[in-house]
From TrEMBL:
The chain crosses the membrane at residues 6-24. This is Uncharacterized protein. Keywords: Membrane, Transmembrane, Transmembrane helix.
Amino acid sequence: MFQVLLLIVVMILAFPLIYVVSLFTERKRIGKAEERFFADREPLTDAQYTAAITNPLHNDFHFGARRAMATLCGTTPDMIHPSDSMRTLLDLQFDSGYIQDFVFFTEQETSTQIDLRRLPDTETTTFGDFVERLAEGNRIPAA
């Protein structure tokens, strides 16, 4: 009985320590990701962004998605470039980001619904291509 109680006490005391260590290591990981991301990075104006995307007809959707990603990454929209890899952008977020968070923020910014079953691959896709694929066929008009 004593061993069970001791185990419970150790677990109760260990949890806050594990939590603090996890927060510290996650903040350190994000700091390194931000350092790599922002090194020598120049802001990209809306006009430059528009010139770099494949279909300017989807500008409003792209700009909404860009604002959503900037919010999640804790930066300004002009620091999000269409050539950024989705993985790099997700790595700037706590716990390496969740694509569902990006989708929900994009839906709010663009007043649309996105079909989560048809999302492009986040590991190999650039931000511009990912957003373009969302704009082309995964949107459902918001009710």
